[in-house]
Specification:
Layout (H helix, E strand, L loop, with lengths): L2 H5 L3 E4 L6 H12 L2 E3 L22 H16 L3 E11 L7 E11 L4 E9 L6 E4 L2 H10 L7 E4 L10 E5 L2 H14 L5 E5 L7 H18 L12 E7 L13 E7 L6 E5 L18
Parallel strand pairs: 1-2, 1-3
Antiparallel strand pairs: 3-4, 4-5, 6-9, 7-8, 7-9, 10-11, 11-12
Length: about 290
C-alpha cells in the first residue's frame, strides 16, 4: 500500500469558492494521480469569513474538517480536501503578523485524515482607519494594491454583509467605495483592510501552495510497518541542545510518530533536520 495505489484515478472534491484549486489541484493531481473537482455553489463563507460578520465554526482545523464533511455529503464522493487560513501575531515577535494555512485531506474509503500546514510571516495582512481618499490610497500602496484586493467597511466589526464592500481591485472601485462609505459614516471615518480571501491575495495563495506541498510530504510519509500514508507526528519532545553551551532548549529534540491505520509508534530524533539549536533560542546564551 502507498499513496500512489491508494489515490490514483480517484476524484477528490475541493471545498472552496475562492479559487484555491489554482494552487492545490496541480500539485495533488500531478503527484497523486487524482482528479480534483470543485462543486458549484458551495458557500464556504458559512463556515466563517475573514470579514467577521460570520464567526468561524470551531478551531481552524475543525472548520476545515467541517467543510470536507459537508462537501462529501453533498457530492457522495469519498475523497475530500479543504483549507483554512488564519492571521495572528507571531508567537515570538507579536508585532509581526503570521499567516497560518492548514489543508486537510480526508479519505473515507481508507479512514485517513492527513493535515498539511504552513506558517509564514510573508503576508500583507493590515488595516487602517481613514478619513479621506488620500489616506486610502497611501494605505493601498503600502499593501500591494491592486494586485492584492481591499475591503471597505463602516467599522471594524460589521454586523452584516451590507456594511462591507469586498474585492476592490481598481482605483475607480476604491474611490467609489471610500466616497460612498464616508458619506454614510456617522463619525467621518472608514475602516479599510486587506482582502485576505485567496483569490484576491496572491501572497496568501502562495502560502496555501506551500501548505499543499507539506500535505503531500505527509501523505508520502508511509508507516514503516504497514505502509499506510500519513505516518505523522503526534507529539513533539523539546530539549534540542544549544549549539554553544549544549544546554536543552524549548525546540524539538525528538518526535513521536503514529500510524492512523495499525497504530505503530516510532520515536525519531531531530525531526526538523537540526541537531543543535541556534544560540538565539537558548535562555542561557540569549537570556
Amino acid at each position: 500500500m502507498d499513496s500512489h495505489t491508494l489515490f490514483r484515478n480517484r476524484v477528490a472534491v475541493l471545498a472552496t469558492m475562492h479559487r484555491k484549486e489554482r494552487v492545490i489541484a496541480p500539485v495533488l493531481e500531478r503527484e497523486l494521480g487524482i482528479q480534483v473537482t470543485v462543486p458549484q455553489n458551495f458557500n464556504t463563507d458559512k463556515f466563517g469569513s475573514f470579514t467577521r460578520e460570520i464567526e468561524r465554526a470551531g478551531s481552524q482545523i475543525e472548520a476545515a474538517r467541517l467543510k470536507v464533511q459537508k462537501v462529501l455529503l453533498l457530492t457522495g464522493e469519498s475523497l475530500g480536501i479543504a483549507s483554512e487560513g488564519s492571521f495572528v501575531p507571531h508567537p515570538d515577535f507579536p508585532y509581526i503578523s503570521c499567516n497560518r494555512e492548514v489543508i486537510i485531506f480526508i479519505d473515507r474509503e481508507n479512514n485517513l485524515e492527513i493535515i498539511g500546514e504552513e506558517s509564514s510571516t510573508d503576508t500583507n495582512y493590515n488595516h487602517a482607519k481613514i478619513t479621506d481618499i488620500k489616506q486610502a490610497f497611501e494605505f493601498a500602496e503600502k499593501v500591494g494594491f491592486p494586485e492584492h484586493g481591499l475591503i471597505v467597511m463602516f467599522n471594524d466589526n460589521p454586523q452584516n454583509s451590507d456594511e462591507i464592500i469586498k474585492g476592490i481591485t481598481t482605483e475607480k472601485e476604491l474611490l467609489e467605495a471610500i466616497n460612498h462609505t464616508l458619506t454614510k459614516s456617522p463619525n467621518g471615518t472608514v475602516h479599510l483592510e486587506t482582502d485576505m480571501r485567496a483569490m484576491y491575495n496572491p501572497t496568501r495563495m502562495k502560502n496555501i501552495e506551500k501548505a499543499t506541498y507539506n500535505l503531500l510530504q505527509k501523505i508520502n510519509c508511509l508507516c514503516p510497518k504497514c505502509l499506510t500514508p500519513g505516518f505523522d507526528i503526534i507529539k513533539r519532545i523539546p530539549g534540542l541542545p544549544c549549539e554553544w553551551c549544549n544546554n536543552p532548549t524549548t525546540l524539538t529534540h525528538a518526535a513521536i510518530y503514529k500510524c492512523q491505520k495499525c497504530g505503530f509508534i516510532k520515536e525519531k530524533l531531530f525531526p526538523d533536520g537540526k541537531e543543535f539549536a541556534d544560540p538565539s533560542q537558548c535562555i542561557y546564551c540569549n537570556p
